[in-house]
Design brief:
By secondary structure, the chain is α+β, with helices and mostly antiparallel strands. It is built from 7 helices and 11 strands. The longest helix has 30 residues.
């Protein structure tokens, strides 16, 4: 069978030709037909072979380019149909690239901290009075916890600023559960007085407790090392943790100084 037909339908190109011209595989083109992303101009009724019109080659090439950029097929279909704005896709791609770059910088910083670690402060034990923080509950995947927690604090600080509510500059994160794939958190900040009222946020109470504390110096991605150091010190000194640990980010999230605190059980 000839791969090019010149009957009344005009010039057609076989699926193999389209694949070679656009660097898409035949399997991919069949898949795009199945999901409606790129239907062939004609399917031979006897052989089932797919044929494409010349103006579909550019569409196939566009799909190949978008696939190479990691754009999903739903977004690609919207772009081809004109229902998705290219500007929004560009913005999302820029956010994705910024996140990748941030993760790479964090990786280098963590490796540097392991190779030449900054000395943390010595752990101390202090009695911490009960206090309240204004914030919200969150459950985030451990695979993206730093970015999501950062976004949650950005939203919280923005809401407080919009409501003209004075607040402390240090964000607080209480870690209620550190599961394998998910963190259960309280995210908040101290306010000058207990009068804030913003939809989606509430006051969260932190009980008074004798507390072990340490200041970890290093990128947020290295915080597990700080928690491990404090946990080791607690157990070496015969102390018993008695509540969720919390992190207080001293300054901006990227300032690389975090106080880690763990309430201790009362010992008579």
């Amino acid at each position: 069978m000839s791969s090019v037909s010149t009957d009344e339908r005009g010039v057609e190109l076989s699926i193999g030709q389209v694949a070679s011209m656009t660097r898409l595989t035949i399997r991919a083109l069949r898949h795009y037909d199945d999901i409606g992303l790129l239907r062939p101009a004609r399917v031979d009724p006897s052989s089932g072979y797919r044929y494409y019109a010349p103006d579909q080659i550019e569409v196939a090439g566009t799909i190949a380019v978008l696939r190479g950029l990691g754009i999903d097929t739903t977004t690609t279909a919207g772009l081809l149909a004109g229902t998705v704005d290219i500007g929004s896709v560009i913005e999302e791609e820029q956010r994705r690239l910024m996140q990748i770059e941030r993760q790479r910088r964090d990786s280098v910083a963590v490796l540097n901290s392991l190779g030449a670690p900054l000395q943390p402060t010595e752990p101390t034990i202090e009695y911490v009075d009960a206090f309240s923080m204004f914030g919200t509950h969150a459950r985030v995947p451990t695979s993206d916890d730093i970015a999501l927690v950062g976004a949650a604090f950005e939203a919280l600080f923005g809401a407080l600023a919009a409501a003209s509510i004075d607040h402390d500059g240090d964000g607080i994160c209480v870690i209620h559960r550190n599961a394998r794939d998910e963190l259960w958190l309280d995210i908040g900040v101290r306010t000058g007085h207990r009068s804030a009222s913003i939809d989606g946020y509430e006051y969260l109470d932190i009980g008074a407790a004798r507390t072990a504390r340490i200041v970890h110096c290093g990128p947020l991605a290295s915080l597990p090392l700080g928690h491990a150091r404090l946990a080791a010190w607690i157990h070496e000194n015969g102390l018993v943790p008695a509540g969720p640990s919390r992190e207080t980010y001293l300054g901006a999230l990227d300032d690389q100084r975090t106080e880690i605190a763990v309430p201790l059980a009362h010992q008579g």
